[in-house]
Predict the 3D structure of the following.
Amino acid sequence: MYEAEISRRNPGLFLFLLDQSRSMSHKLSGGERSKAVEATDAINKQIAELINRCTKSEGVRHYFDLGVIGYGFERSGAAGLISDAPVPITEMENVIKKMETRKEKVDDQEVEFQYPVWFEPVAASDTPMVSALKLAKEWVEKWVQDHQYSYPPVVINISDGESTDGSPTDISKELTELSTKDGKTMLWNCHLSESSAQPVSFPEDESKLPQEKYASTMFSISTVLPDSMLAIAREEYQDVTTGARAYVFNARLEDLIKLLDIGTRVAYSRVK
């Protein structure tokens, strides 16, 4: 399982779910920037990286469909930030909001980078995670019906963990039961807490979790890493063991980017 080749005939699917509740305006423990800024930066950069990976001499190839669901900004629940459904990666350049220039340190030197921005940080209202997962299920359910020979969908949820419209457990199970012939949908969770507990990456059991109110639930709804993803996770985190779940607690921007990269890199390795 999780071995299907990704091609223009059988593209893959990535969905990014982004918590936009008011608590995302708070800074991460020990950090200087808000959770909303860290999360949006990470996803914008990962989308740009995916486009770069799919770009050949003739242009961007349709290796993936992409969707972003923001939840919390409107009290009505989740809303697609890019479109009403996943779109081919070839269309992403048509929905860029702006280009942004930022200085970052590379080998102790400041370097200016210009990168596209598809959406900007938002932090308001509640955290309707269940509504967001229901919308993700609707999108995935339709997509797998049309792509039974594709690599399974990857859904990456970035949240503070506090679902205000009920428990996400049941809908997460329904989502991860949706499958192609190559395997079930994978749900990755990046839990951005305000706890001072140390970051945790890809734990294999609850004994590794911090004493945080929502950590157990976020861990339990996260997919157990398939062997192919386990190998890539071990390249970044040597202590990742068999049974590790696709769950990261209190990630900084660099860890957020690593999480997204691991989640997308193994799928991209199947591109032919």
User: Anything to note?
Assistant: The chain is about 30% helix and 25% strand.
